[in-house]
Amino acid sequence: MSGLLLAVDAGNSKTDVALVGPDGAVLGQARGGGFQPAVTGAARAVAGLAPLVAEAAARAGFAAPPVVEHVQACLANADLPVEERALAAEIGARGWGRAVTVVNDTFALLRAGLPDGGTTAGVAVVCGAGINCAGLAPDGRTARFPAIGRISGDWGGGGFLAEEALWWAARADDGRGEPSELARAVPAHFGLSGMAEVIEALHLGRVAAARRHELAPLLFAVAAGGDPVARAIVARQAEEVVTMAVVALGRLGLSAARVPVVLGGGVLAARHPLLHDRVVELLAERAPEAVPRVVTAPPVLGAGLLALDRAGSRQGVRGEAREDAPRDGLRAAPLEAPLEACARLRAHFA
Fold first, then answer.
1. What pTM was computed for the model?
2. Which of 159, 162, 113 is nearest to 134 (CA)?
3. Which residues have C-beta within 8 Å of that of residue 25, sequence separation ≥ 6?
4. CA 134 to CA 78: how far, in whole Å?
5. What is the mean pLDDT of the segment spanning 77-101?
6. pLDDT at 321
7. Cα 334 to Cα 120: distance, rounded to the nearest angstrom
């Protein structure tokens, strides 16, 4: 089936797969759980994609997954070039496509927030379960961070904020920290009488560890109520988001350029006023020409657009093919896919 494309966006909490036609039509979709090769190993993580690829193909009317022209996989935890190569090899071995490109899933957010024609450049910051940033210059250079956690200098993301809420609640309760409404709100959220019960329940497994992520939205609610401790945490998150964006802009020589700073992921897409307004304020101070843009469309849209870009590039729709890839796995396609195909794909996810 000439021209078919497979778009994969695999995040920490969910995975989306879409079989896309050369005209941008989504023929079949599937959604599954999170993608965590650092925990399961690359082979097992990629094996977990197989049922989703089969489901998307079945919904498109295929008895078995067809061999597509290109597989564009934007994957969480593909943080280092060696990880991208290992994941690309595993996907290639599955035989889903004639060509495979693997990049970190932050590039899917970036592409979703960029226009579909002309020279493009910009930076994306994703703040969901974790935090990451990627940037693209007009000449194809990229900027990114390892984004492996505290060992690579990261601060923030929903999981981190939930742990901060717990930490500050415990210290407010026992007197080691500043008084905070978190000391009351956290136990109330779990239906417990106090932080001592929360600590015991989490430690002994009576409250599932996975429920900790529920504390990130609670943190924002407490901050909105005026709690100084919670507000300080939110302010720090805004600082981290803007710092990553500004550093990426500087690396690419875009500090004074009018380019988008694309914001996405569950934490940023929620547009919590305290966080969003502070991010916009800090960007205006430190990168006055940057244009903040929140993207709420599913990140698989960006993966599909990248697949169309690469297909258009290979076909020479508006120029020569550009198939060479830099060390970090992303070659800036000249956005040569037909604009109608991109528009159709965007409309599907609107």
1. 0.89
2. 113
3. 344, 345, 348
4. 13
5. 95
6. 30
7. 8
